[in-house]
Amino acid sequence: MNKVFIDGNSLNLEDFIKITRNNHEVQLTEEAIKNVKRSRDLVDKFVKEDKIVYGITTGFGKFSDVVITGEETKTLQRNLIISHACGVGRPLAEEVVRGVMLLRINALSKGCSGIRLETLNTLVEMLNKGVHPIIPEKGSLGASGDLAPLAHMVLVMIGEGEAIYKGKKMSGKEAMRMADIPTIELTSKEGLALINGTQVMTSIGAFVVYDTINLSKTADIAAALTVEALNGIIDAYDEKVHKVRAHQGQISAAANLRNILKDSKMTSRQGEIRVQDAYTLRCIPQVHGASKDCFKYLKEKIEIEMNAATDNPLIFTDEEEVISGGNFHGQPMAISFDFLAIGISELANISERRLERLVNPSLSNGLPGFLVEKGGLNSGFMIVQYAAAALVSENKVLAHPASVDSIPSSANQEDHVSMGTIAARKAMEILDNSRKVVAMEILAACQAIDLRGNKGLGLGTEIAYNIVREKITKIEEDRIMHIDMNLCDDIIKSNIIVDSVEEKIGELL
């Protein structure tokens, strides 16, 4: 079994995907174990000394001034979990839940949270054995962290709540019994250590960032197919043009287009057919490139947050200090995920406009209207463009920032919150919509190439075209289009187009 070592400091996006999607096991490093033990020893010392420390010997939020006696600490921690499990809505996907568990393990491994090693090991066992708590997707304000959804994760650890185990939904107690993992009784600081953090928004966001980077490459391939279908002018992608502006994403997008379209017999040069193309073809590097820069920024931010201590209070063992701060506040990620939503939306926006040029006989340079012969009798791709337009319009609504909203909570003790988890969830929905729009463009571009006559595609576009045509044939007359659209969406999800093109021409940027 492949194994990833967890130390609280070095988790990256690639390892995150290996663990969550490919079921690689995790193991704490010796240094992490040492740090966790030291942190716990300090908590035990404070409890023994009856020292007043937020979340250890006091209540929570507005109740931070209520002192809790030593014998009440276990009741305090259990009450915290069961009272905070107020999630609503559909369950998060199992892979997202795995991400939540992994990120919580990694944060606790830093040794700033005061959790017992045996409690942390329980969560490690659950992840490795596939006990996945059912966590409702809604109910988090994104500060104090993802309290409500994380409480649902902890319910299973204490033998409550519900879980999925080996594909079956059951009580948390039964799932733990079947996986042979003992349930636990939380003690001082542990409940707070487990639920006070940004791991739900970060897990959702990590998947969006990873999948969006791949969609960005797919969008370059889709655009290249459309360029060929419309006999687009490739001079606009010349390296010199992009170097004098010097934005790295733009330079990368132009390089991708040149490599994907290499040796194509379907493109043109300026002046051969027309002097210049419309912006949706000519400005592909500028638009796609701006989104690529966004995604690069998000990858950096998400990897910082993956390795962050985001609970409260934080324990600093060298100084024997416990400091009540605000690392649980999701604002750094909330703003980032709002930015991510805009970056993804723009990939879909320009894709839909390219689709419009393909289906509109006034814009398609000689292609039949709506990409079908016997138009009128057949509607062809007419309503495909409608569907794409509906999705990009929905994206515009969803791209409204969540991070600019705040509703005070806990009797105004927690009077500014991030809504970061809402921002992450919106970005995930935008990603799903945008992938479908790109799928529609690919379908239309392949149809247009067939109708214009394939004179020889580029090194990358030929591979993409063949993959699509292995599963989806040219449309000769009207058929149920959503079947083809879903098939192409599945092709993009599998990443076979990007993987196959990269194998032939090298890594896309």
From TrEMBL:
Superkingdom per UniProt: Bacteria
Compartments reported by the entry: Cytoplasm
EC number: 4.3.1.3
Group of enzyme by EC: lyase
GO BP of this protein: L-histidine catabolic process
Listed GO CC annotations: cytoplasm
Predominant subcellular localization, coarse grouping: cytoplasm
PTM: Contains an active site 4-methylidene-imidazol-5-one (MIO), which is formed autocatalytically by cyclization and dehydration of residues Ala-Ser-Gly.
Catalytic activity reported: L-histidine = trans-urocanate + NH4(+)
Gene3D superfamilies: Fumarase/aspartase (Central domain), Fumarase/aspartase (N-terminal domain)
InterPro entries: Aromatic_Lyase, Fumarase/histidase_N, HutH, L-Aspartase-like, Phe/His_NH3-lyase_AS
Keywords: Cytoplasm, Histidine metabolism, Lyase
Residues with PTM 2,3-didehydroalanine (Ser): S144
Pfam families: Lyase_aromatic (PF00221)
Entry-linked CDD domains: PAL-HAL
Placement of covalent cross-link 5-imidazolinone (Ala-Gly): A143-G145
Gene Ontology molecular function, alphabetical: histidine ammonia-lyase activity
This protein's pathway: Amino-acid degradation; L-histidine degradation into L-glutamate; N-formimidoyl-L-glutamate from L-histidine: step 1/3
Family per similarity comment: Belongs to the PAL/histidase family.
Family annotation (PANTHER family): HISTIDINE AMMONIA-LYASE
Protein name: Histidine ammonia-lyase
Upper lineage: Bacteria, Bacillati, Bacillota, Clostridia, Lachnospirales
